[in-house]
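Standup notes
- HV: blocked on the assembly model, inputs below
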Amino acid sequence: MSFINYSQKEINCKIVYYGPGLCGKTTNLQYIYNKTSPETKGKLISLSTETDRTLFFDFLPLALGEIRGFRTRFHLYTVPGQVFYDASRKLILKGVDGVVFVADSQLERMEANQESLENLSVNLAEQGYDFNKVPTVIQYNKRDLPNAISIEEMRKSLNRRGIPEYQAVAPTGVGVFDTLKSVAKLVLTELRKGG
Amino acid sequence: MAAQLVMYEDEFTKINAICDRLAKDANAKVVFLVDKNGQLISASGHTQQIDTTSLASLTAGNVAAMGGLAKLIGENEFPNQFHEGAKDSLYMTIVATRIVLVVIFDNRTSLGLVRLRIKKASDELGRIVESMNRRNSRLEIGSPFAEISDEDIDNLFSE
């Protein structure tokens, strides 16, 4: 839920990167962190295990600029993708304004993608959100891998709703900012409606 | 889903004044007010050396995790948490179910005094937050973004 401070003229929005384990959510945030200028970003916080798997969340605050005199800030979060961290995922979705669903393009991860998408819908509903109304974009990540399946197939199984979709190779940054810009635009458009 | 949190200047000024006074009365190093979604509302005291945005986000994560634990054992939430460090300690109190008051203090004061002052401040803050809640649920708050155009949004992304 966006936080509007009229006194300080700023608005904060929360974007959550969701998806199955090892799909590249943290890599998205790391790339954004590495490529943004120091004055627009805060510290990247990663609560991860000793083997660098996300334990609770990663967090990156970003200042985008001003709209009509309001400073616009985005707080980017990732969820832990591993199935057994479901309780933590639910907590992180609290107050969400926009979602990036990161899908793993590898054939053997298609079932995990679908399961995670279903889990996202259920967890949003538990927080009182209708998945179909939450600003969401989908990122087909790992497009460079030889076992990546076709975009048509991915679309058919994960994007029947026809939400904005992007192809990505997160470690090299392909599609990372396109995805972020797209979800940020959707969130701001939703705010315009007074959401 | 709770109503959107919208704060106006007079409320912000009152809240800041309460936090400033609490920092002084409790002889604390820093006082923060954070909403449960991780947005920083107010900060008083020696905040220069602290990454306030990260503090707000981690506070919210911590309160959410402890809230989840509370529900597992049949409690609604743990309204007070105390974390003791070698030098600095941290006390968190949930105010009016949606705000977290965080006080960081060292051995120049005592836990008893801190708790006493927090109790008073959190009652006052609670009243303000509840009146904000009542107003926000009663009124349809117009978005300051209602007038923005596609061009405004696009401009934000032009490098």
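- HV (later): unblocked. The beta strands of chain A are 3-5, 10-18, 45-48, 54-67, 70-78, 98-104, 136-141, 165-167. Chain A touches chain B through 47 residues (CB under 8 Å).
- Next: hand off to the docking folks.
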